[in-house]
Amino acid sequence: MLTIMLAASLAACTPPNGAVGDTQSQDSAVAHIGPDRADTEVAFIGSQDIDADGLALDALEQGRFKPIYIPVTGTVDAQQTAMQGVRDMTQRKVDIIIVGGMDVTDSNRGDWQAALRSAREAGIAVALLDPVHAPEDGKLYAATLTVDGRKDDAIPLADAVMTISNNDPHERDMSVTTR
User: Residue 61 belongs to a domain with what CATH number?
Assistant: First the structure.
């Protein structure tokens, strides 16, 4: 009986037809008042570009977040390190995981799917920041964030993260700025 109740509670965290935090319309959004930015736990899994990571971290901090940073530069296998970071942050039960520079290939596709599925099943939103190659299964992440400070419709990275974390309506592909 306890196993059935636990499975039901975990299933309640996972939306049936989309990723956690992937709300496309106002009609599908649940009315709520989300947590304050200072109370939102953001995990940032870095990319191979430490300078870009620094800009993203600065933007998150200026947006009143205190991100948990997991660097992958200088590791033997950056993608495996990133996957382990997703698993670790899922265990920590952060509110949102941002993965920088994800590169899903034929050889690591299954590992990425397993890592992202664990976050999804835990009810944790995942956003991809400037991915090289994203997973084919769109239910594994809420949005793709592309840093483009020159675009007129680019929004601050921290605002995009808060929107996704709060499960507020947003585009699936978002242009963000780190300025």
Answer: 3.40.50.2300
CB 84 within 8 A of CB 56: no
Give the separation between CA 170 and CA 165, rounded to whole angstroms: 11
Query: What does pTM read for this prediction?
Result: 0.83
- 106-164 per-position pLDDT tens digit: 999 999 999 999 999 999 999 999 999 999 999 999 999 999 978 788 999 999 999 99
For 14-71, write each residue's pLDDT tens digit: 555 556 566 554 444 444 455 678 789 999 999 999 999 999 999 999 999 999 999 9
* DSSP state for residue 151 in the 8-state scheme: S
Residues in the chain: 179
Per the structure, how many domains does the chain have?
1
Amino acid identity, position 5: M
Residue 123: strand, helix, or coil: coil
**Which structural domain, as residue segments, surrounds residue 16?**
2-177
Q: How many C-beta atoms lie closer than 10 Å to residue 49's C-beta?
A: 14
Distance CA 23, CA 93 (A): 21
Rg of the chain (C-alpha set): 16
